[in-house]
């Protein structure tokens, strides 16, 4: 039996992989909004990616809301922040270094809600070898001369592993970094084509359930601790200007979903498996920033990562988190200001802390 449980599952993943490669940049989905007063947001979505938007759908949080998602295809050939700027989509989520690059290029979008953090038992990423490999947390030099499989260059799967290896004495010039679709990395490890793979949930749980085939060597928590490498929810400024109240309700639902997922890790992992197509009994989910509140520390992390092992765009050094992100649309915020760190955000907030959208220099919203 394959690591995914059946041949039919493998065929399903292969079909999805082909779709991700061959699909147009945007595949228009169908809205479930029957009420003319409901504001629909076009959400860039990959069928195998975790999303609080989709978890909220499974929980029924959008059913009676004044804002609802319309799922469209993932951003492939064109970055999501560029699609936001062009008005092709309304909301997306992705690693913050892409948001930094988008701002340098002048794209009009704003980060409005937080996403994952890191816990030792619920990491943003985990790094697996084949069972019996000599590559371990205490023997990272063994990766020299071998291959690391990752799902995208200049992303969390690329930058974090490079910094961790570099900081632990590994010569990156002696490591082959190979880009593969996420669902193809584990089979490549089994075939001996990849020696260490980088994985997100829900695949982390799938691999943990196969100890005879795979061994978790370390996690992203070993590099950046609880910061988690935020992949905040970003919205086009045009959509925010037109629907500020809907944006506020969106952030509130994301916050409610994040808090529920943190309080119900097993149930949220099962939903993650259901929405992504992986075996529900094997999957894992992320841990999320409480209340969807954004902070400076977990966003500033990306400037540091790119400066250390990436290729920063000229001008990015002049930007700071407040130039891209705001809590202005968060009903659980007491101001538009970013928190200094998530250490200020450890209590679940159940009551709204404001009566409307705060003024922010990032979006020009008319009264």
Q: What would your notes on this structure say?
A:
This protein has 367 residues and is α/β, with parallel strands linked by helices. The chain folds into 2 domains: 7-117 and 228-344, D-Maltodextrin-Binding Protein, domain 2 (3-Layer(aba) Sandwich), CATH 3.40.190; 126-219, 3-Layer(aba) Sandwich (D-Maltodextrin-Binding Protein, domain 2), CATH 3.40.190.10. 34% of the residues lie in helices and 14% in strands. It contains 12 helices and 12 strands. The chain has helices at residues 7-22, 52-59, 80-86, 96-104, 156-167, 182-191, 203-208, 221-224, 237-242, 244-263, 265-276, 297-309; strands at residues 39-44, 67-72, 91-93, 109-113, 116-117, 126-130, 147-150, 176-179, 196-199, 214-219, 233-236, 287-288. The strands form 4 sheets. It has a 5-stranded mixed sheet, sandwiched between helices. The protein has a 3-stranded antiparallel sheet with strand order 3-11-4. Strands 1-2 form a two-stranded parallel ribbon. Helix 5 (156-167) packs across helix 12 (297-309). The radius of gyration is 20 Å and the shape is globular.
For this entry, give a set of tags.
D-Maltodextrin-Binding Protein, domain 2, globular, single chain, five-stranded mixed beta sheet, 367 residues, three-stranded antiparallel beta sheet, 14% strand, 2 domains, alpha/beta
User: How large is the radius of gyration?
Assistant: 20 Å
- Which range does the strand content fall in? 5-15%
Assign the CATH topology of the largest domain.
Answer: D-Maltodextrin-Binding Protein, domain 2
Tally of domains:
2
Number of helices: 12
């Amino acid at each position: 039996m394959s690591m995914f449980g059946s041949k039919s599952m493998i065929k399903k993943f292969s079909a999805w992989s082909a779709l991700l490669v061959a699909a147009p940049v945007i595949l228009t989905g169908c809205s479930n909004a029957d009420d003319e007063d409901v504001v629909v947001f076009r959400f860039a979505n990959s069928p195998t990616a975790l999303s609080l938007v989709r978890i909220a759908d499974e929980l029924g949080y959008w059913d009676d809301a004044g804002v609802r998602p319309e799922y469209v295809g993932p951003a492939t050939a064109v970055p999501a922040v560029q699609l936001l700027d062009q008005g092709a989509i309304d909301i997306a989520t992705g690693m913050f270094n892409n948001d930094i690059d988008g701002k340098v290029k002048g794209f009009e979008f704003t980060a409005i809600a937080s996403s994952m953090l890191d816990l030792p038992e619920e990491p943003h990423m985990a790094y697996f070898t084949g069972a019996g490999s000599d590559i371990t947390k205490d023997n990272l030099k063994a990766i020299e001369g071998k291959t690391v499989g990752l799902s995208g260059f200049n992303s969390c799967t690329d930058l974090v592993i490079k910094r961790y290896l570099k900081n632990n004495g590994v010569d990156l010039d002696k490591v082959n970094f190979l880009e593969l679709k996420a669902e193809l990395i584990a089979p490549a490890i089994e075939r001996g084509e990849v020696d260490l793979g980088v994985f997100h949930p829900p695949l982390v749980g799938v691999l943990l359930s196969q100890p005879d085939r795979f061994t978790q060597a370390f996690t992203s928590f070993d590099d950046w601790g609880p910061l988690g490498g935020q992949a905040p929810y970003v919205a086009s400024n045009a959509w925010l200007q037109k629907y500020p109240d809907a944006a506020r309700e969106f952030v509130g639902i994301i916050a409610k979903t994040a808090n529920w997922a943190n309080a119900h890790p097993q149930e949220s992992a099962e939903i993650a498996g259901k929405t992504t197509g992986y075996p529900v009994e094997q999957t894992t989910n992320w841990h999320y920033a409480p209340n969807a509140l954004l902070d400076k520390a977990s966003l500033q992390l990306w400037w540091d990562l790119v400066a250390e092992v990436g290729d920063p765009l000229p001008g990015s050094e002049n930007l700071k988190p407040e130039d891209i992100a705001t809590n202005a649309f968060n009903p659980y915020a007491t101001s538009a200001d970013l928190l200094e760190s998530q250490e200020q955000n450890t209590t679940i907030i159940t009551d709204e802390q404001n009566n409307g959208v705060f003024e922010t220099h990032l979006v020009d919203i008319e009264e």
